[in-house]
Amino acid sequence: MTIKVKKAVIPVAGLGTRLLPATKTVPKEMLPIVDTPSIQYVVEEAFDSGLTEMIFVTARGKDSLEDHFDFAPELEQVLEQRGNTEMLEKLQSISTMIDVVSVRQKKPLGLGHAVLSARNLVGNEPFAVLLSDDIVDDPTPCVRQLLNIYEEKGESVVALRRVPRPDVKRYGIIQGREIEPRTHAIDAMVEKPDPKDAPSELAIVGRYVLHPDIFGCLERVKPGKGGEIQLTDAMADLNRQRKFYGYEFTGEHYDIGDKLGFVRATVAYALKRPDLAGPLKEFLRTIA
């Protein structure tokens, strides 16, 4: 019987150096896409996928992320006094949507180390990992698409998308076989390969549903470049012990840890807003 996945691990300890100087004092996850912090899109994806427990892997200076999902009595009182019930209800819905727990990643030792830091809170059960640099816009949340595969197969599954061959050096890349439309049985994984050596152009994007055996693999894996523990290396180890799947998700993907990706996401989400789409389209025509 497949155990239901309830927990989402969301690593948010990164320094956001690709978005400096904006992230010098503001956590990158709190930078807004239009008027919504990017972390909210990630948490809403997890919530809309049926996940009920959110675990933030944080670092010093990241308290504002948890504060965003807490009540703000003084602000709510002001909104109530001003009769701004629409915004008041919106803020209260954010606060009541989920409960967040957190654990500190005290040293920046890589994504694998961040996931390992959540071990005591996850326990011996499968869990999802959502990276806050990745936003996926689709009617079916990306992590829900992975959960559908997990619930069918009972094994770990990662999100995949095809990337241009020169870009494979930026990703974990899989070698596998397509066994059903969009679903791949993974035979091997390699972290950031040289394009000429890459086994495919199928890149792992920041959504995962993982069997708890991954924690043992993370403990065993040797640190790589910069002394970091790579999640891809641990997944490759797990893949040698258990079946592992990848799913080419549907939806538009934005890498908002990158300046251009952040701008693209901001424009795309603004164009979905009835109050902004018309004026924005007119503005874009003037500068095209």
Describe the protein's architecture and organization.
The protein is of the alpha/beta class and 288 residues long. It has a single domain, classed as Alpha-Beta Complex (Spore Coat Polysaccharide Biosynthesis Protein SpsA, Chain A). The protein is 35% helix and 25% strand. It is built from eleven helices and 13 strands. The chain has helices at residues 38-48, 63-68, 73-81, 85-97, 111-117, 119-122, 142-153, 214-220, 231-239, 259-271, 277-287, and strands spanning 7-11, 32-33, 36-37, 53-58, 100-104, 127-130, 134-137, 156-162, 172-180, 183-191, 202-210, 244-248, 252-255. The strands form three sheets. Strands 8-11-9-10-12 form a five-stranded mixed beta barrel. A hairpin with a 2-residue loop joins strand 2 and strand 3. Helix 8 (214-220) crosses helix 9 (231-239). The longest helix has 13 residues, at 85-97. It is globular.
Count of helix runs: 11
CATH topology: Spore Coat Polysaccharide Biosynthesis Protein SpsA, Chain A
Whole-Å distance between the termini? 55 Å
Domain tally = 1
Q: What is the global morphology?
A: globular
CATH class value: Alpha Beta
Order of helices and strands: EEEHEHHHEHHEEHEEEEHHEEHH
User: Helix/strand/pairing class, anyone?
Assistant: alpha/beta
CATH superfamily: Spore Coat Polysaccharide Biosynthesis Protein SpsA, Chain A
Strand order of the largest sheet: 8-11-9-10-12
Beta percentage is: 15-25%
Tell me the Rg in angstroms.
Answer: 20 Å
Mean pLDDT: 92
Query: Main beta sheet, described?
Result: 5 strands, mixed, barrel
Q: What is the number of strand segments?
A: 13
Stretches where pLDDT is under 50 for at least 5 consecutive residues are none
